[in-house]
Write a structure and sequence with these properties.
Layout: H1 8-28, H2 46-53, E1 59-65, H3 67-70, H4 74-93, E2 98-103, H5 110-118, E3 123-124, E4 130-131, E5 133-139, E6 144-147, H6 158-170, E7 175-180, H7 206-211, E8 215-219, E9 233-237, H8 244-255, E10 259-263, H9 281-285, H10 293-299, E11 301-303, E12 307-310, E13 315-320, E14 325-335, E15 359-362, E16 367-369, E17 375-382, E18 388-391, H11 392-398, H12 402-408, E19 417-424, E20 456-461, H13 469-472, E21 473-478, E22 481-486, H14 490-501, H15 506-509, H16 522-559, H17 572-635, H18 645-656
Parallel strand pairs: 1-2, 7-8, 7-9, 9-10, 10-20
Antiparallel strand pairs: 1-5, 3-4, 5-6, 11-16, 12-18, 13-14, 14-15, 17-19, 19-20, 21-22
Helix pairs in contact: 16-17
Length: about 650
Amino acid sequence: MQKSLLSFSGIAVLAAILLVLNGISDAVFSRFYVDMTEDRLYSLSPGTIRILKAIEEPVTFRFYFSKTEASKYPGVKLYGTRIADLLREYERQSGGRVLLETYDPRPDTEEEEWAQKYGVTPLGLPTGEKLYIGLAAVNSIGEEDVIPVFDLSRQEFLEYDVTKLVYSLSKSEKAVVGVISPLALKGEPEQMPMPGRMAPPSRPWVLVTQLSKFAEVKFLPADASTIDPGIDLLLIVHPKNLGEQALYAIDQYLVKGGSAFIAVDPYCSVDQPKTDAENPMAAMTADRSSNLKSLMQAWGVKLVERKVVADIDMATKVSSGQTRDQQLFPVWLTLGSDAAGAKGLVNRSNIVTSQLENVMLAWPGALELSKVDGVTVESLLQTTDTAMLFDEQTIRFSGDNPDQILKDYQRGSQSYTLAVRIGGKLKSAFPGKPGEKQQENMSTADGHTAQGVKDANIIVIADVDFLADRYAAYVQQFLGTQIVTLINDNLVLAANAVENLAAGSADLISLRSRGKYTRPFTRVQAIEARAAEKWKLEEETLQAQLNEANRRLSQLQSGSEAGGDGKKVFTAALLGEIKKFREQRQLAQQRLREVRRKLREDKERLGEILFLINTFFIPFVLIVTSVVAALRKSRRPRQTTRFGESESNELIEESKA
């Protein structure tokens, strides 16, 4: 009898072969795989692939990962393996433009020395050992860039960080940032300190000095009639009283696919109007607001005019009064801090705001959103649903008084948007060039672009003060060196926005978070949540019993009689109550122990079930399926006709006929 390949002995042989193939698959089949993850974590986005195809000179990845030390930390080891897999996908998709080299920098080796030269930062371990998990990239002309350490809390932005590294090496020139602002961002004095005296030169804002480290900053006149297309990003801070000519220049720059970071404000405290000796109240009543109303409405965004947002649940604590006690200041909003109760009000899925933990907006405004065809608007920052709006005039006269603001505050019932990101092909807010006779069909041939052909990328935030040094950074001079200490994440937000928008690549800007690598056991979490809820109920019941027993004891003690020596006499009723209290406390503690035991048992039982399924049930199903398939095949009627026999029989029958 012919033996079937899928007999029991054949299955055993196949199982052995499977184990061998599984052991060598990482080395032999590493370039062949199917990404079946829910969020396509190991597949590159179309934007990344286009950037890789556009690389003219090859880029070498040098991935430094301490495999030996990471073996003691499963989470780090797994993440390092995933990074290596993704980097191999870069190499595969680049068509030879990206080369990957992987090193295990053991202590006191040449690999460790090179990792330190490139600037890869080791993680300090409790044992004193160093664990490297960073990436250095070098192009063909010797330019270098580095990711010092891959942050485990930033896993969903892994592709963006690596692609940005590739793009930075393929672009030799710095990004150009054009600044439009009436404020003294570059250091000019805003007003004369005393009549007849020159004002001392003021230093540039920390915002400008920080941006100058990775971009070329150009200051543009407020009456600019055109925007140089070579500018990668417009930084518009407090666009107050811009003329129609400047508005049209900004409009055309963005309609043609430009990028902009815009800060508007209903009340800008750093906008200090000039003093007038003849009219001291002029400075107090001067307008400190800014807006781009005509342009923003064409994008589906509107600043609520003359209104300042306040939110008691996001209020910043400030020192006030003679005692310098800490008070809540509802018009200074702290976002991203768990302590401030603002968790979740920062968009964690956007690259610009994902890692922000402490952003402080001073007297911000509210943005209203509406739908515009072809334009997408994404909220980046927003308040809780208890916010309210203060009139700008109230803020002007008492906006720096926490006591008065708290007195006038009333909890609202809606949330307000504070910052948005806008994308898409924009329509011009102008029918044509200002001052020219308008025709029905104006086009680019007339020098006017009515409809965008490239996607614009814009971030609008309803606050200007958060960029100023007094609200963002502390600057000291030490031995002729300027030392900057960031107070919060305000300038981190600005740098993130500028760096992302000024990249000059729509493909890089298009990258978003890819989902988390960690896949929690939701069933286990649900069991823990139910048990924790029950535990909380038991704890509340216990506390209520303790409070009642203490109240009864106080009543009995106050009603007890004093003995001859002045001491309290414990009556039989009091002793009985004490005994009852002890019994109740013992029963409650026993119930709490039972809840903890059941929680542990539920988790252990679930773990045992998962272990049995993975270890025995799945292999059993595969074996049964294979055996059934083998039996079915063995029961099929065998074809005894040899090759060519049927054809010869047909010829014989035809000859007989």
